């Protein structure tokens, strides 16, 4: 969970950059997570409803939301939290749920300042996007919680994926392992599918029954209080990869190791990408590296910086990034691997610890 001190410090940095002459009203779900630890579970009857965060010039923060949101919103880190009555379950609703917050908005200037339609919207979104690059200690701690649970799902996958299972059964097993590691339910999403090569590089789980020799891409995220992991392994169903499949894995392992050596504040994302691509180029396989080389990670997925062929960004201390090289060869299969890293002034810390191997 994000801390009260961390949220307060982020709000203060935001105000120092924005220098508002009046209070600021925020409603974007990403901003409410970042500045107030406010998160509504994605699978709930309230998933489409949010809140208003009112930040005064002196930094005082008040969160307003309807009273029917899940219990998790009680973890919000603000000076005041004010639930508003909407529906008790015994009487009809007091107002359409979308309008419950309107009197609060009217009383606080009538503007949602981080709306793209507001004159301040683009500025606020730009400032917040830049601030989010440098993760605070409480953010890193929460991300490590996500990654530890994600590790547990990968361990289950390596031990249990076998011919005859459906992709949906794999998803169920991985998700249950994640829940057990966390001790509670969470959103688990991503790629849980076989890849035949360039024509299919990923996708959600289906009723497809796994066959021996197929390459199964296990690339998923675990969301806890709005923050998420994202890392990957590819498993050969049946445990007997061909020489060509093993070559894809060996090259990808070499690429990710080479890229990780370049993760350091001040290094361009282009340099990191080129380092990985050059490994594939040396083996005459660069044309099969058709996905991005990695990306930032935190509240959203993906987010800056982007480790891609035409990147213009530079790594900063506090970035949490993924490296995810892969090769997709028709007739052999598609393969992708991925780790998560915290970028520092002197290098990087690997945050994901799952085993990467075909068997």
From TrEMBL:
Q: Which InterPro entries match?
A: Creatinase/aminopeptidase-like, Pept_M24, Peptidase_M24B
Gene3D superfamilies to which the protein is assigned, alphabetical: Creatinase/methionine aminopeptidase superfamily (3.90.230.10)
Q: Peptidase M24 domain location, by residue?
A: 142-345
- Pfam families noted in UniProt: Peptidase_M24
Q: What is this protein called?
A: Peptidase M24 domain-containing protein
């Amino acid at each position: 969970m994000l801390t009260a001190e961390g949220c307060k410090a982020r709000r203060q940095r935001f105000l120092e950059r924005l220098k508002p002459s009046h209070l600021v009203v925020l409603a974007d779900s990403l901003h409410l997570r970042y500045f107030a630890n406010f998160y509504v579970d994605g699978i709930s009857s309230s998933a489409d409803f949010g809140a208003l965060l009112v930040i005064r010039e002196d930094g005082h923060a008040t969160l307003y939301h309807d009273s029917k949101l899940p219990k998790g919103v009680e973890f919000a880190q603000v000076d005041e939290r004010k639930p508003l009555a909407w529906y008790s379950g015994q009487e009809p609703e007091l107002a359409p749920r979308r309008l419950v917050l309107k009197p609060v908005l009217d009383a606080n200037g009538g503007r949602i300042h981080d709306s793209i339609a507001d004159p301040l919207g683009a500025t606020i979104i730009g400032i917040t996007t830049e601030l989010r690059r440098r993760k605070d200690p409480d953010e890193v701690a929460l991300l490590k919680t996500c990654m530890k649970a994600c590790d547990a799902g990968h361990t289950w996958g390596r031990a249990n994926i076998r011919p005859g299972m459906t992709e949906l059964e794999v998803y169920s097993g991985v998700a249950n392992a994640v829940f057990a590691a966390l001790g509670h339910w969470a959103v688990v999403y991503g790629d849980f599918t076989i890849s035949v090569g360039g024509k299919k590089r990923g996708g959600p789980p289906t009723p497809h029954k796994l066959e021996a020799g197929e390459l199964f891409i296990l690339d998923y995220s675990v969301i806890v209080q709005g923050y998420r992991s994202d890392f990957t392994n590819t498993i050969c169903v049946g445990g007997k990869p061909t020489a060509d499949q093993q070559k894809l894995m060996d090259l990808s392992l070499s690429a990710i190791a080479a890229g990780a050596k370049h993760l350091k504040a001040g290094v361009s994302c282009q340099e990191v990408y080129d380092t990985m691509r050059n490994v594939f180029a040396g083996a005459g396989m660069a044309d099969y590296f058709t996905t991005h080389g990695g990306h930032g990670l935190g509240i959203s997925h993906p987010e800056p910086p982007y480790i891609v062929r035409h990147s213009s960004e530079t790594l900063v201390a506090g970035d949490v990034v993924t490296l995810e090289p892969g090769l997709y060869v028709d007739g052999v299969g598609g393969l992708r691997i991925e780790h998560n890293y915290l970028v520092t002034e002197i290098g990087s810390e690997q945050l994901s610890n799952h085993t990467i191997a075909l068997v």
